[in-house]
Amino acid sequence: MSNPEIRELEAFLALADELHFGRAGERLHLSQSRISQLLRALESRIGGRLVDRTSRRVRLTPLGERLHAGLRPAFDAIVETIEEVREAARGVGGVFRIGFQGTANDPFMRAVTAFRDRHPDCAAEIVEIPLSDPFGAVHRGEVDAAVVLMPVRDDALVLGPVFSARPLALAVSDRHPYARRPGIDAEDLAGCPLIGVSGAAPEYWRLAQTPVVTPGGRAIPAGPAVGSLQEGLALVRAG
Questions:
Q1: What average pLDDT does range 22-39 have in this prediction?
Q2: pTM of the predicted structure, to 2 decimals
Q3: Domain count, the chain
Q4: From the CB of residue 131, how many other CB atoms can be counted at a distance below 10 Å?
């Protein structure tokens, strides 16, 4: 005689809990007829009736009660073990280190809180990443993932979904002539030095944050590197 299939055992346990074919079917997203079919198959494998059903009630037979008493804790242990192994495979246990650039603002902290709520067995730690080295911490294994400014063109990294879409904004000293304007055009950046990003950041990334030409092709001179106290213009992400 062949051993019972997992779906047959699930149907029996759901029926033993609900004592109602319809509710057992809803619980497993199966029809009542499918629950009946699985039950009959299980009874055939065992060689005895497990459930008595009349027009008024459903109840376990003594044989069904014996099976339920022994099967329920064993089945729950199997499900729990599988879930523990699945979570371990997903890497949601232990410590998950999340890097960020700039400010740990409300959207970022809400995402971290949601992760902690969803995976209470995993400690989420946040680590600030220097603007000048957006990808180094991931490469060196100092963080497991990072929220950084786009673009990312690195075959050694896996790019996830966009965390938040924010436009570029122009930040100037309140003494700069542009500060008195209601707005400027990108072409107005020609001839004005932009504060750049120095360090280990790849060139394509630095150029994306601090362009060297306007959309029309006019040159934008390089200003001091980040960290300098000299006056200049800077492109930053609007926050």
A1: 92
A2: 0.51
A3: 3
A4: 18
